[in-house]
Amino acid sequence: MIFHNKLIKWYLQNKRDLPWRKTADPYQIWLSEIMLQQTRVVQGMPYFFAFTRDFPTVFELANASEEQVLKLWQGLGYYSRARNLHNTAKYIAEDLNGIFPQTYKELLRLKGVGEYTAAAIASFSYNEAVPVVDGNVFRVLSRYFDIESDIAQPATKKEFAELAYELMPKDDPATFNQAIMEFGALQCVPKNPDCSVCVFNDSCLALQKKKVDMLPVKSKKTKVTNRYFNYLVLEDALGNSLLQKRTAKGIWHNLYEFPLLETTEIANFDFVSHEIKNNIFPHYTIISVEEYSGATVIHKLSHQHLHIQFWKIKITDVIENGISYEALKTFPVPIAIHNFIEML
After folding, report:
1. Cis previous bond, 216, omega within 30
2. Could you read off the pLDDT of 112-155 as tens digits, one per residue?
3. pLDDT for position 21
4. Which fold, 225-343?
5. What is the C-alpha separation between 268 and 279, in angstroms, rounded?
6. Which helix (H) or strand (E) holds 233?
7. Confidence class for position 212, pLDDT limits 50, 70, 90
8. 219/155 Cα distance (integer angstroms)
9. Where is the signal peptide (predicted)?
10. Chain mean position to CA 73
11. Are 114 and 132 in contact (CB under 8 A)?
């Protein structure tokens, strides 16, 4: 049986019931694809429902404030995706009258839309015969055809895209693309796939050559940087605190946080207390400084491990524009700070 027939037959019998598979609406497909970049389906699903509830069309998303979008995105990570999503929604609503581009090449011009996302929208919404190539596709094809090309190299993506295009039935690219991604997500998984029940176990070259756990080949390892964040949680005479916006480029851009003291290693009480009293808040009369015991966390991002400590600073003053505890909950903040606020 030809590859795509067997694959699609498996898909129709085993596919998950996902809401974005029940529509050809490019807005909903675009939302789902942006959310699922570097995010598991089970984690992304509640966010998809929340966004389609609060922003049922691209116009509502475009008219929302950035803070509304970031707050709804809170906890999903990679916040540049949310900012790009918002900017692109404005462009589509205002410049394109709410009508999405209808070809792969035109979709690629949208901010935050790369080759994979453009291919997904083009095939799922407009049935354009363009292959999607993600980690699942790399894994399925590299194993089935025993391809040892390094998937960390840009040229390899082109190689796999050309192969996927050859295999794709040109009259139904959407189902093929969904099928090969689902097969990689459910059957041909990264570690310990159950090849005994695989529909391709009679023709998979990696299985025949006992190379399943060796493919795909990926050379580059992500270098992880350790950073040390000390969040300074002020409490004034009224019980109010202070947040500030992260305006610098980098992680958590435009999210809110407590005043931050970043150090080169885990900081001790004496150092933090000295910095607070002499350099950071010399204009306040400080009653006490103490570390929140039990609040220290290590927050792992793709390229960084953040060692986060929280310090309580009580002052006799009244903070100008101080923020109450209840109001703290309304600001879009990184999930580590959200969790801390919830336990206060």
Report:
1. yes
2. 999 999 999 999 999 999 999 999 999 999 999 999 999 999 89
3. 95
4. Nucleoside Triphosphate Pyrophosphohydrolase (3.90.79)
5. 16
6. strand 225-235
7. very high
8. 14
9. none
10. 10
11. no
Q: Which residue has the tokens 């803070």?
A: 67
User: Which tokens go with 231?
Assistant: 């969040």
Q: Which amino acid is at 60?
A: E
Amino acid identity of residue 108, one-letter, is L
Specify whether the CB–CB gap between 151 and 170 falls below 8 A.
no
- Rounded Cα distance between 26 and 4, Å, is 25
Over the stretch 60-94, which tens digit does the pLDDT of each residue have? 999 999 999 999 999 999 999 999 999 999 999 99
As separate numbers, helices (DSSP H) first and strands (DSSP E) second, the chain gives 15, 7
What does the alpha-carbon distance between residue 216 and residue 190 come to, in Å, rounded to a whole number? 9
Return the H-helix or E-strand segment holding 226: strand 225-235
Element (H, E) at 126: helix 115-126
- pLDDT tens digits for 145-175? 999 999 999 899 999 999 999 999 999 999 9
Task: Quote the Cα angle for 13-16-22, to 5°.
Answer: 100
Domain boundaries, the chain: 3-135+156-189, 225-343
Confidence of residue 188 (pLDDT cuts 50, 70, 90): very high
For the annotated catalytic residues, the residue numbers are: 33
| 125, two tokens | 């919404």
Q: At the top level of CATH, which class does the domain 3-135+156-189 belong to?
A: mainly alpha
Work out the average pLDDT over 43-66.
Answer: 98
Name the DSSP class of 265.
Answer: S
Q: Tally the C-alpha atoms within 13 A of residue 188's C-alpha that lie toward its C-beta.
A: 29
Pairwise CA distance, residues 318 & 236, whole Å: 5
Encoded amino acid at 332, one letter: P
